[in-house]
Design goal:
By secondary structure, the protein is mainly beta. The protein folds into 2 domains: 1-15 and 49-246 and 258-266, 3 Solenoid (Pectate Lyase C-like), CATH 2.160.20.10; 308-325 and 334-511. The chain is built from 6 helices and 45 strands. The strands form 2 sheets. It has a 28-stranded mixed sheet that branches. It has a 17-stranded mixed sheet that branches. Strand 3 and strand 4 form a beta hairpin. The longest helix is centred in the N-terminal third of the chain and has 22 residues, at 48-69. The chain is elongated.
Length: 563
């Protein structure tokens, strides 16, 4: 009977992990059920050899955890379990929470001469147990290098890492060979994870952790279809990790006053149905892809007074795209996701856009400052109610605010310094009471199948081909225009920006020039070389010289003779 229960537990664990982890935990929108794709780790180029190596290490790590889950000894004291030569300290449930001193006493950690604590073995917090490392000003190093790495994993258990304001707990990888943090994830790297439990980080500095997948990415919350992960991040810093922090199937995760900087992929990534996340007064800076991201069924995300700057792609990226385009073997949801609220905050100098929202509904972006990105605020396929209001958007290269497909309201914003300040493409958008300055191509542009759009009570200024560009809408579409103040606009068709982008904006023009222009040129050439009527059919190129007859006067001596 005991053996049957053990086997059943292992099978249940495998199934649960399959649901939690899926094939890979990237944020590639093509990662549908049954499709294997490269993980989001591909933010930085990874060679095929490095990718295969990390994937193999991840598989071995999964097997180790599943073996432990399937063989837990309920009611026993803490014990060490070996798997393929790797030792793991298993902390079983049994009363009081474990602490850092317990890890040292049980042989999984050592105190170094300089007072630093080095974790030398894997630690697994079993279901029902608790681990609380409350150590202000302490540095906890996790062994990591070419000879292997260690991890802190809580499974359906609670884990807390805490320092104090001004005295953070520092958690980092450590390579004895390099005498410093492990710089490379290629051979695996130490990580921290809570699966289907509660994990809190308070005043913690985390660096140089994680590799390859979301669940081993640095610090991760991963839930299952039956039990979500939850927890909080307060006053903490995440830098130089694979992901700064990662959540999958988590619920009611709270992030306050924290910083996510210089991580290889995203600063903070919400993935696979993570819901009801609150992020306040936090920063994402210089990350290899997005500052803050949410996708694959994640929803109900609130960002309040966050800053996202100098990230390689987007400051905030949200995708509410359905998990499946149609019926799937896994029964993936066909509905779109949403409830994204961005209140205040600063989004600047990101490689692509300050904010990008795809296929979301109930989206509000209010009172934000968006500056010096390629694009400012980008909405794609959003549904009502979606609104961008009271925001200041400046200095973006292409579009200040752009809405493509779907519905939205763009009201009461100040937009300056873009080629096109506000663009509507194939969407129904109310563009009302916006103040546009210093646009260099169009102040407000409505193109394509944009029936139902209105452009009213806007004040526009700038210089370019047209202040209100409504001449490229689809046939039969009319746009409501009323009481727009265009007094500040200077129409200039010789504007360099206009002409430098004319052909890219009108790609069919070149084709029509070839189709119509070439026959015209050939016709002109033919007319110039036409033969005048009466001309002989063949030219006479034989040179003939005609000498006039000599005139001789009688009685006068001529040259060479006598008269």
């Amino acid at each position: 009977m005991t053996r049957l229960l053990t086997v059943s537990a292992a099978v249940a664990a495998v199934l649960g992990v399959a649901v939690v982890w899926g094939p890979l935990e990237g944020t590639d929108p093509s990662a549908q059920a049954g499709t294997t794709v490269a993980p989001a780790a591909a933010a930085a180029p990874v060679s095929s050899v490095a990718a295969e190596r990390q994937s193999a290490i991840l598989t071995a790590e999964d097997e180790r955890l599943l073996t432990i889950v399937g063989s837990i000894r309920p009611g026993s004291p803490p014990y060490v379990q070996e798997h393929d030569g790797t030792r793991t300290l298993v902390l079983t449930a049994g009363g009081l929470a474990y602490g850092l001193s317990d890890l040292i006493e049980l042989g999984a950690a050592e105190v170094q001469p300089d007072g630093v604590v080095l974790l030398t073995e894997h630690v697994f917090v079993a279901p029902g147990a608790r681990l609380i490392i409350d150590a202000p000003g302490t540095t906890l190093r996790l062994r990591s290098g070419i000879s292997g790495f260690v991890s802190l994993v809580a499974w359906k258990a609670d884990m807390t890492l805490a320092g104090a304001d001004g005295q953070p707990l520092t958690v980092t990888s450590w390579s004895s060979r390099k005498r410093g943090p492990d710089p490379s994830p290629v051979d695996g790297r130490a990580y921290v994870r809570d699966a289907s439990g509660a994990m809190e980080l308070r005043h913690v500095t985390v660096s140089d952790l994680g590799f390859w997948s979301g669940r081993t990415s640095g610090v991760a919350w991963t839930g299952s279809s039956s039990t979500e992960a939850t927890g909080a991040i307060m006053g903490s810093t995440f830098r130089d990790n694979h992901y700064g922090a990662f959540a999958s199937k988590a619920e009611e995760l709270t992030v306050i006053g924290s910083d996510f900087s210089d991580n290889a992929v995203d600063g903070l990534s919400l993935h696979r149905s993570t819901a009801q996340t609150v992020i306040e007064d936090s920063t994402a800076r210089g990350n290899g892809r997005h500052g803050f991201s949410a996708d694959q069924g994640s929803e109900s995300v609130t960002y309040t007074d966050v800053t996202a700057e100098k990230n390689a792609a987007y400051g905030i990226f949200f995708s509410g795209t359905p998990l499946s385009d149609g019926r799937s073997a896994g029964g993936a949801s066909l509905r779109a996701y949403g409830e994204v609220h961005v209140d205040g905050g600063v989004f600047r100098e990101n490689g692509k856009a300050g904010l990008r929202v795809v296929d979301g509904d109930d989206v509000t972006i209010t009172g934000t400052r968006v500056a010096d990105n390629t694009d400012g605020i980008v909405l794609v396929g959003t549904a009502a109610p979606t609104a961008v209001q009271g925001s200041t958007v400046s200095g973006n290269d292409r579009f200040g605010i752009t809405v493509s497909g779907g519905e939205a309201a763009v009201t009461g914003n100040k937009v300056s310094g873009s080629e096109t300040a506000i663009r509507v493409r194939d969407a129904a958008v109310d563009v009302v009471d916006n103040n546009v300055r210093e646009a260099t191509s169009h102040a407000i542009s409505v193109v394509g199948a944009s029936a139902g759009s209105t452009v009213e009570e806007n004040t526009i200024g700038g210089r370019g081909p047209s202040g209100l560009d409504v001449y490229r809408v689809a046939e039969g579409v009319s746009i409501d225009l009323a009481t727009n103040d265009v007094g500040g606009w200077t129409r200039d068709r010789d504007n360099w920006t206009y002409w430098s982008t004319f052909i890219p904006n009108h790609p069919m023009l070149l084709l029509w020039v070839l189709v119509l222009g070439v026959p015209v040129l050939l016709g002109i050439r033919a007319r110039r070389s036409a033969v005048a009527p009466g001309t002989k059919p063949y030219g006479d190129d034989i040179r003939r010289e005609w000498q006039p007859p000599a005139r001789v006067e009688v009685g006068r001596r001529t040259a060479g003779g006598r008269s």
